Amino acid sequence: MGKDLNGKELGTGIMQRKDGRYAGRFTNRFGQRQEVKSRDLKELKTLLNTAIYEDTNHMNLCKTSITLDKWFKTWMEHYKENTICANTKRRYMV
Which domains can be identified in the chain, with CATH numbers? Predict the structure, then answer.
């Protein structure tokens, strides 16, 4: 549980930075830490809940800085693992 500068509990994954801004963090389904920032606590909670919702419902596919090889591995693991035959998977890997 994070705290603000006065020591008040803010909730899981939310903290107040020394410059007064609030930051919320969570781990997405790819195992990467995501962070949202805002000057307003209410707005931060809305942004954090939206980001978690998008991650839970697979609305955030990938980051723009991902390489083609990493995207292929992610695509195979999350979208094609249980839907294609073993022979097809083997041919994709060649």
Answer: 1-60 (3.30.730), 62-94 (no CATH)
